[in-house]
Amino acid sequence: MILLLCMLSLLIVARSHMQLNYPPAFNSSNNPHTSGAPDPFLFYPYNCCGRTTVFPCGGYLNLLGKPEGAPVTSWVVGSKQKFTLTGLGNHYGGSCQVGFSVDKGKTFQVATSFEGNCPHRNGGLDPSGQTFEFDVPADMPTGQAVFAWTWMNREQEFFMNCAAVTIAKKDSKSSSSTGPASNAAPSYDMDGCTCTCASAFALDAANQYTTGGCDCDCSKAPSAPKPGAIHKRAVLIPAINKRITPAYLMSDCACTCAQAAKKNTNGHYSMSDCTCTCNESPTAAGSKHKRFGSIVRSHFRSLVTKHNLEHDLERDVDVVHVEERSTVAYKDRPSMFFADINNGCESPLTTAELKYPKPGPDVVPGDGVYPLALPSPASECGV
């Protein structure tokens, strides 16, 4: 019996690999929104070990619109970000892609392709040695999106983890840094009011932006809707009509609060513990664009910046930089590539790492330890 358990343990370790560490994947142990038992198979390749894995995202797209599928971070369009990996075995590399879905998983567009040395073959298993940099497409739609990471190793195994993220406008203060989101409470300018909320606004199932736990300070008395009135652009909160709690209209948002607005010692009006629903993502406090809901047009210059691969000699870990920032429109980026999932397309086996048929405009080259090879057969792989 002991021998059987030992052999089973070895088999599990042999088939256990890597998973997305940041941003935290749906139903992962480090996702703050996971409510039940985390998925122990996120490390595993698709259809491993007698299981059928639901495609895409392991079947977790049904969490979108639920508390368990809430965004785990906020990224500004055009910003440089990082994702990290962790696990029990990096299989000495492979090729990875990251990309986004803005239609709840119906389609996935490529952000960056890492052709070879992904995961870092000499980076170990800790996230500190498995960090990868990429650019959020500058013109991708704002609101809630699904971030996807895929990996194909030299054993023809396919991995895919996904996370819910918020894509914010360029003038937003939402986490433009290249790491996990700041713990600072986000603040927003809303029609003469500054509201500090427990969390950032996130796109809900009704395609409106919501958040709660907001304390607001207003330079003038906030406007209260008439009973039975519907907020402009059809934002309707039932509590407004029923007059259950104090309700206010601020910019393009309708908010219900625990307490009615009270005039404070500095002549401003204060409300506490408000829940707000908006038609558009509110402007972060301090932004140059004060008018909420206005259309901000930005002209993006063509930025083509080439970087050399740097080597961290202290840790013997390759530090990867995005080779180009392309002007290719988000809608024109190729779809993410999928193989080794019984779809008739197979990645290279053993002697080469995957070269993507349509890698997209942002490609990070590997270290050259293994040659690159296209998947086969060409007719099934879009080659």
UniProtKB/TrEMBL annotation:
<protein>
    <recommendedName>
        <fullName>Lytic polysaccharide monooxygenase</fullName>
    </recommendedName>
</protein>
<feature type="signal peptide">
    <location>
        <begin position="1"/>
        <end position="18"/>
    </location>
</feature>
<keyword id="KW-0732">Signal</keyword>
